[in-house]
Amino acid sequence: RPDFFALFDWFLPMTSSSHRTRVSRVTSPAGFDIWHVEDYTVPLVSMEFAVMGGAAQDPAGRAGLASFLAGLRDEGAGARKAEAFQEALEEKAIELSFGAARDRLTGSMRTLTEHADSAFELLALAIREPRFDPDAVERVRSQLVSGLRRDETDPQSLTRDALNRLAFANHPYGLPPDGRIPDIQAITRDELGNQHARLFGRDVLRIVAVGAISAEALAAGVDRIFGDLPPEARLAPIPEIVMQSAGHTEIIDLDVPQSTLCLALPGVSRRDPDFMAA
Predict the structure, then answer these.
(1) What residues contact residue 179 under an 8 Å CB cut-off, 6+ apart?
(2) In 3-state terms, what secondary structure has residue 216?
(3) Which residues touch 83 (CB under 8 Å, ≥6 apart)?
(4) Whether the predicted pLDDT of 144 surpasses 70
(5) Is the whole model's pTM more than 0.90, yes or no?
(6) Would you report the helix, strand and coil content of the chain in percent, each value rounded to 5?
(7) What secondary structure letter does DSSP report for 80?
């Protein structure tokens, strides 16, 4: 991988802090809104996007479905199986990565400007035509289960999951975003495809791009990637949170030499006008 990707890790925060007035809002021909910083200091393009539906949308008994979906994003798309898809990325030093949080699925793309068309095309395939091949599904399932088994002996993971389970009982936030082993083992290929179709929609998409690309070229690339998305995602409403188990102390015995302590108090809603001040 070219060393200038390390330079870009430095360049991106410098750009966003020192050139705030140059952030522009671009609307693509298909109607997508994009926050854009056009800068030719280095010949790179970075794009981040999110759809506003993540692990909190996992159905009952399928905790970890969003994480499973994110893990399969670069495991083949269109006519390319996983190995061919990865080779196409590596051939032109294109980086694609995907993740899942409670309220969003995220993706990122980094590429040399000269390979932007190829990067847009590969990302478009990952969004429009994920393959979910059986061998890839089982490989990612095994990776997820291995990670969850490691978490069973990790103090921070155990305390985090216990706190969420107690504070948000009977609420989607009470479930671990990475899932539970029995749920991950039960997820089917059809469920992955159905969840993909349900979570992705134009109305919940957010896009930010920085780098050596014009607004016109960026807008065309975004339309190429996301233009086939349905107008609306099919998200289930998430109930308001009321923190539970106040005053409760839970002790988890673990044979490790150092203790981990996790505390929680009610906070300020992100929709509260005083959130930023708080």
Answers:
(1) 58, 63, 64, 65, 67, 68, 144, 148
(2) helix
(3) none
(4) yes
(5) no
(6) 45, 15, 40
(7) B
